[in-house]
């Protein structure tokens, strides 16, 4: 049995790997979604359930995904079909792995579009483009105008502006990925992550030292708003699900990208300590910095009730409408605005480059293609489908992808990979695999958690979300009249991706002569992380 | 800020910053 075509890439250094992994995890959700979720779900109650979910769901899943990825790397498989087939010698394994290629491809396409908003607003901040629109309503109208939503007569920008920023954002993404793991992604993380932490720290200090607002509220009132322990809500399933969902999104598990990054490690490299370091870095960015910027700033300028209304109107309104209103009232507001959107851009791009990694790995490893042509071809595909998101945003085209791939799909892949890695591979083998080359011994209680608690936790989330959201969304109960054809097309494209990728997997297995029941031949690593 | 909110915030920050410091200290010690 052959191993298919191979690539000899590896991470340049351990710190580079951790920064890239942390960059993959730290995204827009750390700074926008987390404070909104915490404030809307009982503050202290949310934080208690959040840390329980981190320990029972997030960290175990991180280790499972690092383990799956590194095990796949033994056979030079940087994609989920190969990784699952390496563990479960069954013909179905490779097709289950297709979920782990559809999700990152779909999410990457619409995420790059959202990322382009952050680049655009960085530019608008530097040039003072939105300055003079000093109310929440005016800024919401400005954001919608940029997105091409609402009344065309009140448009502020050219209709081509969002397309131009999307094109630039996509070009930067493709350029970075085309430079490879060490020369592109790792370099980006080494530059982007320190900038992200610097900008976030400066903004947090500025916000926490703001003088009291019109109603006497300070940033500390805002922190009180997030952390106030309304323990009466700890019995609500909604709070537990909200915190579990946040842990899921923030760590970027169930995506396929973390596993792809880990596949460039050898069995001599640690994953136990690296996994904890990555999760901890992400949590610092989220809890300490993410919680100290947007909501406290909104409370200072709009009071607690105003901030609550902003939070309930959605994370994007908080980030792209409320924060610009705040910056307009601060000294050096243009610079602070550019720092805010700049940090969101770096948070976004270090995540989006990770999402294409599994697909690039698939074409390189299974079809022997070189990196650049694969990256350029994927860039064209992303451009083509990204344009649909820009044109049909108001018809729920993006929301549909965000739900099926970016929400439901993540839990589905996590359920599949947990069952395969823990139950099919067997807990003892999984535990041994995670500890190969480990710098720490993981407390044994986590073996029981990974075997029983994490899968049950995931199945509860999948069932709840399926019952609560998936069925109404599937029946298009929440679609605005007239948008049904766009929603159907949006779904049809996801199905098309799944079918095409499944066919490509079948072709790859046939052309490389893989035997599903025999497994792959192990590859001796050429390079290891120093 | 109420004292209970301050306790929750202090505990949350201590946990994540402590975990980050501990893990990076171990990594740097390993070289």
Indicate the topology.
The complex is a heterodimer of chains A (530) and B (31).
Chain A: H1 14-25, H2 28-31, H3 33-40, H4 44-73, H5 80-87, H6 91-96, H7 99-126, H8 136-147, H9 161-178, H10 181-208, H11 219-227, H12 237-250, H13 257-262, H14 272-289, H15 294-312, H16 315-328, H17 333-367, H18 371-391, H19 397-424, H20 427-435, H21 445-474, H22 484-511
Chain B: H1 3-30
Notes on the protein architecture:
- The complex is a heterodimer of chains A (530) and B (31).
- Chain A has helices at 14-25, 28-31, 33-40, 44-73, 80-87, 91-96, 99-126, 136-147, 161-178, 181-208, 219-227, 237-250, 257-262, 272-289, 294-312, 315-328, 333-367, 371-391, 397-424, 427-435, 445-474, 484-511.
- Chain A is mainly alpha-helical.
- Chain A has one domain: Amino acid/polyamine transporter I, CATH 1.20.1740.
- Chain A is globular.
- Chain B is mainly α.
- Chain B has one helix at 3-30.
- The longest helix of chain B has 28 residues, at 3-30.
- At the A-B interface, helix 1, helix 4, helix 11 and helix 14 of A face helix 1 of B.
In short:
The complex is a heterodimer of chains A (530) and B (31). Chain A has 22 helices and no strands.
What attributes characterize this protein structure?
heterodimer; A: 530 residues; mainly alpha; Amino acid/polyamine transporter I; disordered N terminus; B: rod-shaped
**What's the oligomerization state?**
heterodimer
Task: Report low-confidence residues of chain A grouped into runs of 5 or more.
Answer: 1-6
Overall mean confidence score, pLDDT of chain B: 93
Give me the number of helical elements of chain B.
1
């Amino acid at each position: 049995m052959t191993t298919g075509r191979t690539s000899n890439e590896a991470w340049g250094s351990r710190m580079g790997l951790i920064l890239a992994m942390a960059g993959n995890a730290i995204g827009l959700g750390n700074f926008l979604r987390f404070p909104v979720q915490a404030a809307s779900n009982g503050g202290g109650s949310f934080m208690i359930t959040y840390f329980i979910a981190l320990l029972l769901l997030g960290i175990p899943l991180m280790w499972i995904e690092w383990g799956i990825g590194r095990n796949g790397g033994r056979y030079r498989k940087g994609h989920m079909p190969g990784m699952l087939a390496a563990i479960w010698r069954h013909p179905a394994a490779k097709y289950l792995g297709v979920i782990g290629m559809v999700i990152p491809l779909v999410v990457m396409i619409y995420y790059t579009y959202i990322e382009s908003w952050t680049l655009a607003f960085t530019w608008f901040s530097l040039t003072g483009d939105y300055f003079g629109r000093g109310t929440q309503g005016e800024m919401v109208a400005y954001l919608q105008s940029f997105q091409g939503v609402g009344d065309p007569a009140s448009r502020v920008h050219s209709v081509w502006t969002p397309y131009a920023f999307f094109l630039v954002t996509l070009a930067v993404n493709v350029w970075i990925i085309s430079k490879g793991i060490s020369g592109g992604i790792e370099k980006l993380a080494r530059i982007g992550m320190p900038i992200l932490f610097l900008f976030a720290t400066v903004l947090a200090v500025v916000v926490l030292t703001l003088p009291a607002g019109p109603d006497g509220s300070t940033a500390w009132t805002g922190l009180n708003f997030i952390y106030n322990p309304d323990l009466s809500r700890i019995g609500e399933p909604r709070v537990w699900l909200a915190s579990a969902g946040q842990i899921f999104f923030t760590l970027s598990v169930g995506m396929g990208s973390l596993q792809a990054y880990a596949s460039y490690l050898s069995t001599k490299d640690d994953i136990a300590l690296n996994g904890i370091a990555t999760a901890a870095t992400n949590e610092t960015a989220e809890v300490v910095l993410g919680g100290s910027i947007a909501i406290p700033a909104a409370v200072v300028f709009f009071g607690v009730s105003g901030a609550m209304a902003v939070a309930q109107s959605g994370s994007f309104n908080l980030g792209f409408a409320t924060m610009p209103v705040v910056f307009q009232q601060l000294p050096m507001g243009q610079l602070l605005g550019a720092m805010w959107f700049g940090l969101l851009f770096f948070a976004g791009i270090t995540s989006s480059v990770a999402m294409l990694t599994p697909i690039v790995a698939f074409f390189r490893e299974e079809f022997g293609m070189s990196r650049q042509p694969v990256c350029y071809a994927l860039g064209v595909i992303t451009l083509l489908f990204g344009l649909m998101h820009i044109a049909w945003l108001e018809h729920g085209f993006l929301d549909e992808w965000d739900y099926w791939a970016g929400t439901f799909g993540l839990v589905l892949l996590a359920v599949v990979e947990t069952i395969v890695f823990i139950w099919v591979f067997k807990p003892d083998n999984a535990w041994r695999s995670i500890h190969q080359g480990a710098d720490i011994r993981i407390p044994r209680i986590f073996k029981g958690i990974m075997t029983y608690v994490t899968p049950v936790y995931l199945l509860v989330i999948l069932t709840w979300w399926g019952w609560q959201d998936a069925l109404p969304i599937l029946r298009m109960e929440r679609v605005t009249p007239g948008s049904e054809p766009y929603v159907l097309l949006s779904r049809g494209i996801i199905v098309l991706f799944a079918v095409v990728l499944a066919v490509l997997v079948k072709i790859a297995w046939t052309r490389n002569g893989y035997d599903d029941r025999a497994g792959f031949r192990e590859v001796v690593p050429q390079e290891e992380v120093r | 800020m109420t004292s209970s909110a301050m306790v929750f915030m202090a505990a949350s920050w201590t946990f994540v910053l402590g975990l980050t410091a501990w893990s990076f200290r171990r990594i740097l010690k390993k070289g």
